[in-house]
Amino acid sequence: MSKTNQTSCTAVLVGKDASFDGSTMIARNEDAHGAINPKRFTAVKAEDHPSKYVSKVNEFTIDLPDNPLRHTFTPSADESEGVWGESGINTSNVAMSATETEFTNPHVLGLDPLVKEGIGEEAMESVVLPYIHSAREGVERLGKIIEKYGTFESNGIAFSDADEVWYFETVGGHHWAAQRIPDDAYAIAPNQTGIQNIDFSKPDEFMWATDLREFAEKNHLNPSKTEFNFRNIFGTHTEADRHYNTPRAWYGQKYLNPEMEQDPMSDEIPFIQRADHKISIEDIQYILSSHYQGTPYDLFGNGTEEEKHRFRPIGIDRNQEFHILQIRNDVPAEYAAIHWLTFGVNLYSAQVPFYANVNDTPENYKNTTNTVDLNSAYWLNKTIAALAEPHYHQVINEVNTFKDDAQSYACGRVAAIDSLAAELSGSDLIDFLTRQNETTAAEVTKRTYALFDSLVKHANNHMQLTFDKGQNL
């Protein structure tokens, strides 16, 4: 999320042959400038879409196509400053996560400046996801919008369907490129241009702005004699990147490929990687909750104070919501899409597997206010983080046990719901999945309240404002 520079998000993208069950997965932490940015989780019906989108961030306006699709959505609780839809899956089982804040180098911005009234992250999910029927179509639609209207920021956007995962990156005001993540590969994206060498002879693997090559050639932007490295031509390689961005890619790759030796501050950490094992939901959850565990850079570890504050962690106070958009290939399409979601700081929160083919979402997920309300899933999880972090070493085992138990429950629920859903179709199936999501969320919420109860008691029993009269006798 890009309300200010260098504040936002980490993404993980997994091809279907690299995943544990043959599903495609795109995942991202939605981070904000500060610790608080209340979020909601909704299901947007086709009839509720406007015919024209008018941004509240700038004067960007666009006419929208007919026949929009119903989809899940995670907008801001207060839309007075924009929608910021961020993540969702539509009824064609196309997923979109938007966006990963990125940065274009100053030379390119001088030649293709950002467009003040262009499209931005705030609008992308709203004007693309309801109107696409494949991941590739998502790339094409967003690319045309960027070229016609321009954009006022640099971003990375993930698209997926049952077969393909694509990562789309904007550079400058009107240029972009996208790469299909190979089926047997994964990618980790911090707030930095990721795509590397583009092979223009392979349009099935890469897509790009109409004049991308010509723009680079005309303006002598390419430092290489032999290749077209998108990251090197358009991206940044700053000291801030080496402390803020590349270490996150390094740690995620270190977790999935522990055999690799890489420098966390390297400018050359590969975008595309392959693990020697299948990547699970739990692997992604670990990465996007991580804080450099097992290294000197862990804030809660044994490194020096300088080491513990050297790099920006992935799991951080500004986490607002964390989604894994999973499109499965081993069940019928009508219930193949799962929108895994948690609110709050990932390190302390459990994920809920919400089936995407639904017409509503639970009350405590869709109704979030701007003021603290423990009836809200967002505020409950944010409060738990505030209670747990000051007592990290005393409570983290309890928190991890809570998360593991909730994950076991979630996996069991998916198996049970799949079995029952196989007997249903049409509106009966949609209603059934909607009710089952309610039940799943209610149980995870119940467990979360139990953790809250324990953490409040722990915090009260460890207050410094206390006195033992025996100490002075």
Automatic annotation (TrEMBL):
InterPro entries: C69_dipept_A-like, Peptidase_C69. The keyword Ribosomal protein does not apply. GO terms for molecular function: cysteine-type exopeptidase activity; dipeptidase activity. It is an enzyme of class 3 (hydrolase). The keyword Membrane does not apply. It catalyses: an L-aminoacyl-L-amino acid + H2O = 2 an L-alpha-amino acid. Its EC number is 3.4.-.-. Belongs to the peptidase C69 family. This is Dipeptidase. It comes from Sporolactobacillus shoreae.
